[in-house]
Design brief:
The chain is mainly α. The chain has one domain. Helix 1 packs antiparallel against helix 2 and helix 2 packs antiparallel against helix 3. The termini are far apart.
């Protein structure tokens, strides 16, 4: 039977790895199209990757710290900005 500590690190690692892969896909689309939307989405997923890696590696970086959620807020704000920027009317 796997203990909670080991299982939580497994899930954190899986989320970090998949966030990195998704960010890489968005960056590839950005290189092909040059659309800032894909750049911002890719950066957002890579910020989330770094946040998850720090959560798994650094014992002092915990989910109950405000800084943890500030990093996530930054990532989600980039996504929101990308959507608003993409749908903004161009003159």
């Amino acid at each position: 039977m796997t203990d909670y500590y080991g299982m939580s690190h497994l899930v954190i690692g899986a989320i970090a790895a998949l966030s990195f892969v998704i960010g890489s896909f968005f960056m590839r689309f950005w290189r092909v199209t040059g659309d800032r939307f894909f750049l911002l989405f890719g950066l957002s997923f890579w910020i989330e990757t770094a946040n998850r890696v720090m959560l798994g590696v650094l014992p002092a970086w915990r989910e109950d710290l405000p800084a943890y959620y500030m990093v996530r807020l930054l990532a989600y704000a980039l996504i929101l900005y990308a959507i608003i920027d993409k749908n903004r009317r161009r003159d």
